[in-house]
Amino acid sequence: MGSQGGLAPQDAQDAAAFVGLLRQLKEESGLTYRQLEDRAADRGEVLARSTLADVLRRATLPRPETLAVFVRACGDDHDVGAWLEARDRIAAGEGSQVGSSAASGVAWLPRGFRLLSVVAVALVLAAFAWIIVPDSSNGRAARAGPSIGKPDSGQPLLLSSEECPGVLVKGAHNLCVQELQKRLQHHGLDLPADAVFGPYTKMRLMAFQAFAGIPLTAMADETTKKALYEETRKIDTWTPKQVERRLREVFPEQPEKAVRLVRCLTLLDPIWIWGNPDGSRQWGLFQFSDLELMELGAEPLTALNPERNIQLGRAVWERTKDFNHWSCQPNIAATAERRS
After folding, report:
1. How much is the pLDDT for 94?
2. Helix%, strand%, coil% for the chain, nearest 5
3. Quick one: which of 271, 273, 261, 267 has its CA closest to 317?
4. Phi (first) and psi of residue 238, to 5 degrees
5. Angle at Cα 49 formed by Cα 43 and Cα 55, nearest 5°?
6. Which residues, in sequence order, are bridge partners of residue 281?
7. Residue-wise pLDDT tens digits, 211-264
8. CATH entry 3.30.9 includes domain 240-337
9. Long-range contact set of residues 30-35: C-beta below 8 Å, sequence gap at least 24
10. For the chain, give me the number of helices (H) and strands (E)?
């Protein structure tokens, strides 16, 4: 699928052609570097003007996270996935050229020596792989990557190492994001460790920040990384079944409507957090906005407590004895249900 304006990232065959398409994308957007930086910031993402200028000036592939933020800043109608897939394909192709170059280096030898040379190269590469790739002790295939230390092992911690960017933001997809997701899982938060920093990971990260009492940046900055490696009590929340049962108890007059509304709003997920285009956020089962929480004298952490959130919902319901205060957009829930 091509991008808006006829740009087709999948047609790029090398890094230079790919960056050329990125330059065209910027031109088609009609936005300046400052405007692109501001649009990214409006989404809670980071896209420094200097970084973007450097990316578009060179003929090398940008980081995946930078690419994703840039494409989104150029317009919501662009297919970020297509750009990331094209970037990864080119990166993989450039990596495979190393092996082909090694083979071509013995092409001038006689046939017998050529075969021996190729075998020797293969043996050397296999031996090297044996050294750098640890065997898997759980029966799964081992994969090469940065070494990941445990908090009490004395080894470097991946998120705080030079292997990872200083700040991880939505749009990144790499082993650093996977480590971030695993640390969130360790603290009791349910999410896939798929190495993709999408809306669901952003939601869970913000929930962790709220429970940890650190700034709600929705980004894995240094403060958040440090907190992720600290051993604290796991976050304990309700299952959807527990939420449904409690909703029926608190709203005996309209139990079906209560469950249907909250399922539409948040999939019965007590720590559901949704960000709006204007930078405001909505919290918990009944999706109270920042302003509503302020008016109710409540904090975001209060709204993430399922019992407190349901009681706040009951207080609002009492005013009119109905649920007309809320409106649900099913597409929001359906989008996040993919947990991407």
Report:
1. 67
2. 55, 5, 40
3. 261
4. -90, 155
5. 105
6. 275
7. 999 999 999 999 999 999 998 889 999 999 999 999 999 999 999 999 999 999
8. no
9. 31/73, 31/74
10. 15, 3
For residue 1, the one-letter residue type is M
Q: Where are the domains of the chain?
A: 4-94, 106-144, 158-228, 240-337
Supply the DSSP symbol for 142.
P
pLDDT one-digit tens code per residue, 8-23? 899 999 999 999 999 9
Could you write out the DSSP letters of every residue in 40-92? HHHTT----HHHHHHHHHSSSPPPHHHHHHHHHHH-TTS-HHHHHHHHHHHHH
3-state SS assignment for residue 140: coil
Return the percentage of the chain with pLDDT > 90, whole number: 53
- Identify the DSSP state of 164: S
The listed CATH number (2.60.120.380, 1.10.101.10, 2.30.42.10, 2.40.128.20) that belongs to domain 158-228? 1.10.101.10
Give 266-303 as a DSSP string: HTT-TT-EEE-TTS-EEETTTTEEHHHHHHHT--HHHH
Q: Are 310 and 301 in contact (CB under 8 A)?
A: no
Measured in whole angstroms, how far is the alpha carbon of residue 264 from the centre of its chain? 23
Low-confidence ranges of the chain (pLDDT < 50): 1-4, 98-99, 101-119, 121-122, 124-149, 153-154, 331-340
β-pair type (288-289, 281-283): antiparallel
Q: C-alpha 38: how far from its chain's center?
A: 20
Exposure string over 29-47, b if 16+ CB within 10 A, otherwise e? bebebeebbebbeebbbbb
Show Cβ contacts of residue 87 under 8 Å, excluding neighbours closer than 6 positions: 9, 18, 61, 62, 64, 67
Q: Answer whether 158-228 and 240-337 agree in fold.
A: no
